[in-house]
Automatic annotation (TrEMBL), chain A:
It comes from the Bacteria. Transmembrane segments: none annotated. It holds the Pfam family ABC_tran. InterPro entries: AAA+_ATPase, ABC_carbohydrate_import_ATPase, ABC_transporter-like_ATP-bd, ABC_transporter-like_CS, P-loop_NTPase. Residues 8-243, 259-503 form the ABC transporter domain. GO terms for molecular function: ATP binding; ATP hydrolysis activity. It comes from Rhodovulum strictum. This is ATP-binding cassette domain-containing protein. Keywords: ATP-binding, Nucleotide-binding, Repeat, Sugar transport, Transport.
TrEMBL record, chain B:
It is found in: Cell membrane. This is ABC transporter permease. It comes from the Bacteria. InterPro entries: ABC_transp_permease.
Length: 508, 314
């Protein structure tokens, strides 16, 4: 392995953003025909490193060498011209253009006459056959699925005769089947002499697809190992710097019912199912898990609990009393802590600072508001407290939240919800897209909140997560809710029957 | 019915093309800007300045075509100011655009007063004359309706074809469309979003100015204050009406011009004696709003329109 030709070498790459050192003297080499996994938690510096390689950022120090030649820093075209292709986590495709047009973009002299579509189409079709990347060349990109868009990105790189492919968290947006197809494509590419850097924080993928692993932690190289000589536990340790134990909580002690739904129905919206005569009790000291295939009413239930919608029929009781005039404000006043499903769209405001985001729910009340004026000093102190207590890695409380990685954003949202000491906690997909470190942390906090007497409603599409954390499990299907199942009383297969909607017919 | 008589007269259709010409030119200019991701609200003022610049250049002794070039260059200059403020500096496109309209309009009036301090009625120039296209202009009805226009009208129609060809058939057009949809995709290919957008705004503004110059150099033969009279704003709406497609925008311009030519003629019918003329003046605008409502339901707005692009920012 070490005898093989080095195609890409990074040496001493350092990059600082304010007080945060995102990359600290990172160096490693990529050999011809191998898949090198770059493993690290969110915020470990992987994406920053790739932005430096591609000239989107200029490193404070360090060099990038491709096929024996130094790349000039801060020149976005240089890496491309040298034969490095990148598939970004956020695709760089124009939705109003066709697949072929997106591939052609930038490949011809700007002021030349035609686009050479026919010739390009033939090449694209050949590439898509050779690498198993099925996609329709004349389809508009905006009509494609996420998996298809990713194939377009890979085709784009191959069309530019990339010999090195870099994939930034390529499976984060894919279904398991799409991931398998991607891995097959990567194997074909390597067999044809390409070299691949596969950036990920998912251990099982790294084990499945890579030849060698470089682990990043806090912006430094924490270790470099051959995949064949390691296992998931060793990698996880390198990644987080300590032995990892996923939480296996003791059963909670159920207390009073804090929120209750009696025969509640809500209307469907678009593709989203409404609720159909749902009865549910959320009890203090319990995590209630909601399992189900997405789009079966989880959204409606989450919106109902967090105050975004009110019941169309049936009764909603908080603390034993029926509520009327249910609204987001009323939910907050009733002590509902909310961890929304989409931290970007509904959990935060991207261009607001951490401080502003930290008081989004409490800005209008004491202590952050006095006689109608916001007390920014207190707000800032609050944000600093959350940053310290919840280990939010960021440049500071005045940084805009969009600069944070998903895991750190989620920690701030978690901190915002929990610091208000809610009695009822809605956790909708709280660990989606998080790495192990952040995931365990968030789960432990939810368990701690439960033990302190909160009622937690956990919504997740991950059945394992539901089964490990929940004291009581309900299954939702087409807006109907199953009876409660006690911890450990149903196997995944048995829950699957309910998820498919069959248990309901039997019960009725 | 008088309306059928009007619709069957060749002079009506000739008027439609004439009224549509400045709208077409300026709409193509705006369309180029917006396709690249920049809303150019300077259009109204740039048209005023173009009308003035082309006319004064000819009055000062230049030929008609050099005058058109002067108008184009003056528009491109205002485009450069607009693009500098909105593209590299990323300022609000609304504020900058309205500022450019005020600046360009008052610059034109100021320059007019400087150049002609004593006159009460503006001097006339010899404008573009109708150009009878051989053979085609001899066809009964169609000939006088379509093929006896001035060179600038033919230029306006040609500009639609050129814009469409460039946008959809060349690498440059592809890069422009991508810059207005997802600039990051353009940057990722090593192309400069800044250069593309600035270039688009300058060329687009030049076309707007030529649209303005049509009024002083082809439709009339002199420069009056208020002569552009909101045509720039109509063009903004026409771009939306045309769903950012050159051909559909042309259709929109013809439709609007049709209503306008119709209302002028309706004023002279017996019905015009009973209905206040302001009602007729409203007709093209009311019908345009209706058409806009019906047509723009499912249009695809360039996704990055009005979004400044900063390199290296997420």
């Amino acid at each position: 392995m070490t005898g093989r030709e080095v195609v890409l070498r990074l040496e001493g790459i350092t990059k600082r953003f304010g007080k945060l050192t995102a990359n600290d003297a990172i160096g490693f080499a990529l050999h011809r025909g191998e898949v090198l996994a770059l493993l690290g938690e969110n915020g470990a510096g992987k994406t920053t490193l790739m932005n430096i390689l591609f000239g989107h950022y200029t490193a404070d120090s360090g060099t990038v060498e491709v096929f024996g030649k130094m790349l000039p820093p801060g020149a976005p075209g240089a890496a491309l011209a040298a034969g490095v292709g990148m598939v970004h986590q956020h695709f760089t495709l124009a939705g109003n253009l066709t697949v072929l047009e997106n591939i052609l973009l930038g490949t011809r002299p700007l002021f030349g006459p035609g686009l050479g579509r026919a010739e390009a189409r033939a090449r694209v079709e050949r590439l898509s056959r050779d690498f198993g990347l099925a996609v329709h060349a004349d389809a508009k990109v905006k009509t494609l699925s996420v998996g298809e868009r990713q194939r377009v990105e890979i085709l784009k790189a191959l069309y530019r005769e990339a010999r090195i492919l870099i994939l930034d968290e390529p499976t984060a947006v894919l279904t398991p089947q799409e991931s398998e197809a991607l891995f097959a494509t990567l194997k074909r590419a390597v067999a044809q002499g390409l070299s691949i850097i596969f950036i990920s924080h998912k251990l099982h993928e790294v084990m499945a697809v890579s030849d060698r692993v470089v682990v990043l932690r806090h912006g430094k190289v924490a270790g470099e190992v051959a995949t064949a000589q390691t296992d998931r536990h060793l990698l996880a340790e390198l990644m987080v710097g300590a032995e990892v134990a996923l939480p296996h909580p003791a059963p909670g002690i159920a207390g009073a019912t804090l929120m209750e739904l009696r025969d509640v129905s809500t209307p469907a919206e678009g593709n989203r199912s409404g609720l159909c005569r749902v009865s549910l009790a959320l009890r203090a000291g319990q995590i209630t898990g909601l399992a189900g295939v997405s789009g079966n009413g989880q959204g409606a239930l989450a919106d109902l609990v967090s105050g975004l919608i009110a019941p169309e029929s049936g009764a909603l009781l908080v603390g034993g009393a029926e509520v009327s005039g249910w609204s987001p404000r009323a939910a907050l006043a009733a002590g509902v802590g909310r961890i929304p499903e989409d931290r970007h769209a509904t959990g935060s405001i991207a261009d607001f600072t951490l401080t502003e985001n930290a008081v989004l729910e409490g800005y209008a009340q004491a202590p952050f508001s006095r006689r109608g004026w916001i007390d920014w000093r207190r707000a800032r102190a609050h944000a600093e407290a959350i940053i310290a207590k919840y280990d939010v890695r960021c440049p500071g409380p005045e940084a805009r939240i969009r600069l944070l990685s998903g895991g750190n954003m989620q920690k701030l949202i978690l901190g915002r919800a929990l610091e208000a000491t809610p009695r009822i906690i809605l956790a909708n997909q709280p660990v989606r897209g998080l790495d192990i470190g952040a995931l365990t942390y968030v789960q432990e906090r939810l368990i701690a909140a439960r033990d302190a007497g909160a009622a937690v409603l956990l919504i997740s599409e991950d059945l394992d997560e539901i089964r490990v954390l929940s004291d009581v499990i309900h299954v939702i299907s087409a807006g109907r809710l199953s009876p409660p199942f006690a911890r450990g009383s149903k196997t995944p297969a048995e829950l699957g029957v309910w998820m498919a909607g069959q248990g309901f017919a039997d019960a009725a | 019915m008088e309306i059928f008589e009007i619709l069957l007269s060749a002079s009506f259709w000739a008027a439609v093309l004439r009224i549509a010409s400045p709208l077409i030119l300026a709409t193509m200019g705006e369309l180029i800007c917006e396709r690249a991701g920049v809303l150019n609200l300077g259009i109204e003022g740039i048209m005023v300045f173009g009308a003035f610049a082309g006319w004064i250049a000819v009055y000062a002794g230049l030929g008609l075509w050099p005058g058109v070039l002067v108008a184009f260059a003056s528009g491109a200059m205002f485009g450069l100011v607009h693009a500098t403020l909105t593209v590299p500096f990323g300022l609000s496109q609304h504020v900058v655009g309205l500022g450019i309209t005020l600046l360009a309009t008052s610059s034109a009036y100021y320059a007019y007063r400087l150049a002609l301090p004593q006159v009460t009625s503006p001097p006339r120039i010899t404008p573009f004359q109708p150009l009878n296209i051989p053979v085609l202009s001899d066809i009964p009805f169609l000939g006088p309706a379509l093929f006896s226009q001035t060179a600038l009208t033919y230029l306006a129609f040609a500009s639609v074809a050129v814009v469409a060809l460039v946008l959809f058939r060349t690498p440059l057009g592809l890069a422009l469309r991508a810059a207005g949809e997802n600039p990051a995709a353009v940057e990722a290919q090593g192309l400069s979003v800044t250069a593309l957008r600035m270039g688009a705004v300058m060329v687009g503004s030049g076309l707007m100015a030529v649209g303005g110059a049509f009024l002083t150099m082809s439709a009339f033969d002199s420069f009056f204050f208020e002569m552009v009279n909101g045509r720039g704003w109509i063009c903004i709406a026409l771009v939306v009406f045309g769903a950012w497609m050159p051909g559909k925008a042309l259709l929109g311009a013809l439709l609007f011009a049709g209503f306008d030519a119709l209302q002028i003629r309706m004023q002279q019918t017996p019905m015009g004696a009973h209905v206040p003329y302001q009602v007729f003046l409203m007709v093209p605008y009311v019908l345009s709003i209706l058409a806009l409502v019906l047509m723009s339901r499912r249009v695809e707005v360039p996704a990055a329109l009005m979004v400044p692009y900063n390199r290296g920012e997420r």
